[in-house]
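sanity check this record:

:::
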Amino acid sequence: MIVGDKFGKGEAYLMELMMSAQAMKSGLHVIEPELKKSKGGQKHIGTVVIGTVEGDIHDIGKTIVATMFEVNGFKVYDLGCDVKNETFLEKVKEVNPNILGLSALLSTTMVKQAEVIKALTERGTRSNVKIMIGGAPITQEWAREIGADDSAPDAITAVSKAKALVTASQANQT
């Protein structure tokens, strides 16, 4: 996050950004199994389908969020990066998740988040899932504009907001 902010301010270069991303990926491979072990007997909170939208190959932030969801009691289906709209739609239909997470790091791929939401609406399944969006260029205003239920700037906030969305959804069903 620090390197990303510095890159945005012109204080770091692309090579430094790429090197820090690779270091983060390497660290995740070490940390992730330990985080999953620490989950212990935590109860199942809900199900999440998550991925980085089509045209975007950035997955570090999405992977961190997916891992944090998992260690906090969510069953996670991580579709990876550069995920086609249809793949999101099929997985939502298949597993009926509580949350659909759509990540976009590039401002040019943000429109794919809107396309997925529009397609869910057209298929009549939008009301069955809460949608959270994230990524560096994502704002709460963008979330409102495209009809997402929420956005989160980081993994900890994403988990907190996802728990709140699931709790509110379950309360509305009773």
